[in-house]
Amino acid sequence: MKNDQYYMQLALDLASSAKGKTNPNPLVGAVIVKEGSIVGTGLHRKSGEPHAEVHAFRMAGEHAKGATLYVTLEPCSHFGKTPPCANLVKESGVQRVVVAMEDPNPSVAGRGIQLLRDAGIEVEVGLLEKQARRLNERFIHNMVASRPFVISKFAMTLDGKIATYNGHSQWITGEEARQDVHELRNEVDAILVGIGTVLKDNPALTTRLKGRTGKNPTRIILDRQLKTPLDAQILKTNIARTIIVTAEGQQEKTHTFKNTGAEFIYVPLVEGKLDLHSMLDQLYKLGITDVLVEGGGEVNASFLRDGLIQKFLVYMAPKVLGGRHSITPFTGMDVETIDAAMLLDFADIEKIGEDLRITAYPKEG
Questions:
Q1: d(C-alpha 309, C-alpha 362), whole Å
Q2: pLDDT digits 0-9 by tens, 353-365
Q3: Which of 53, 102, 187, 294 is labelled catalytic?
Q4: What pLDDT, on the 0 to 100 scale, is given for residue 288?
Q5: Which of 8, 62, 177, 242 could join 355 via S-S bond, C-beta 3.0 to 4.6 A?
Q6: Catalytic residue status for 336
Q7: Dihedral (Cα; 285, 287, 288, 289), 10-degree rounding
């Protein structure tokens, strides 16, 4: 028999289908059920378009009266690009509302729920909350930290190597895993690499999906001394937006890039390295809500050292490279004891072709 959990999972699945299309807004799904039958469904498809509840109520029409609404995120109670959904729910005639999680925005959290309760509607909160929070991890981080959500992605061998001693790394993983990365690129706002990757691989950092056109995220280059070649693929800005992050005081040198269309962010140097905190603050103001870090060991180490990684995506190949000088995912400063390691929680391990994809998060507390 179908129950609350079944309908909320359906709402979560609907929301998930719009990954990468709603930024900076959250992913939201809604299902309306009356007397055991689904009478309305909806999801937020794209920023600026109607919210999930609007689509669901349009479908349900008069059948919404006396029904139960399942929604993955608290109905909004404030005016944005669209009117508040809490008022729509209040006026719809639904008898009961089941909400997976409260709005993470501290300024509005709980207001929509209270508005519905004040109107005499039964409201339950917290069903499948863990799944709902994981689905909107990017949006939650944006609301709490006012910064982009940072994902560290890398491919490595079973013995933890991302390249040979001379930097050769194509290809560690198989075709299926590489295609999975392009699906990920299709969801994020930006991809970030260091100048070392640009000089060594000359990547395009575009999204290539089988059978359909993907979204090309903004390309970000960490380039303290402005060494990016003018003929680099990443400077073909007719394909995708490119932002070069460089040091304060380099403004005069950027005139050589004036015909490329590249944009620039200037940040202070901290111990000779670009200030990543300042960079993330500026990227967020430019509308970048999440960043996929695809850099090498030094770039990865910089984000790790500054505690700026919210999620790890590791593709592990069934290969052993060996060697004293093969390159590891995180270089940087050595530590003396295991106690200095960052502790992680493994959230998911899935086989992608012949490789494993490991999803991990920094351990809380």
A1: 8
A2: 999 999 999 998 6
A3: 53
A4: 97
A5: 177
A6: no
A7: 100
